[in-house]
Amino acid sequence: RKGGKLIPSHELVSRFGRFFTAGRLTISAQEGERWLMGHELRGRNQQPGVVLVEDERGRLLGRGKVVGERIRNLLPRRLVY
After folding, report:
1. Residue 51 in contact with residue 23, Cβ under 8 Å?
2. Are 74 and 8 in contact (CB under 8 A)?
3. How far is it between the farthest Cα atoms of the chain?
4. pTM over 0.85
5. DSSP annotation of 18
6. Is the CB of residue 64 less than 8 Å from the CB of residue 71?
7. For residues 47 and 31, what is the distance between their CA atoms, to the nearest angstrom?
């Protein structure tokens, strides 16, 4: 919990993300590669909060936090390649 809002953990999203219906963001395969290397997404206009990031094939890639017009990568560092 942070500031009265529930922030789902990476583990929760990895296991149950397929059941989340809101707050999803689909990105291209090229963006997905950069995402998995730990980069953030820029030039996005999303509602503030935490989003689930998935690729075009529907594979869940992790969580991101919307900060202005960018999405900060919340992928745990141990999973970044």
Report:
1. yes
2. no
3. 35
4. no
5. G
6. yes
7. 19
Cβ–Cβ < 8 Å for 74, 62: yes
Spatial distance between the Cα atoms of 66 and 46, rounded to a whole number of angstroms: 7
User: Residue 77 has which token pair?
Assistant: 């560092």
Distance CA 10, CA 12 (A): 6
Of 49, 70, 71, the C-alpha closest to 61 is 71
Distance between CA atoms of 31 and 16, rounded to whole angstroms?
23
Give tens-digit pLDDT for 21-46: 888 999 999 999 999 999 999 998 88
Report d(CA 33, CA 12) in Å as an integer.
22
Query: What is the average pLDDT value for the chain, to the nearest integer?
Result: 88
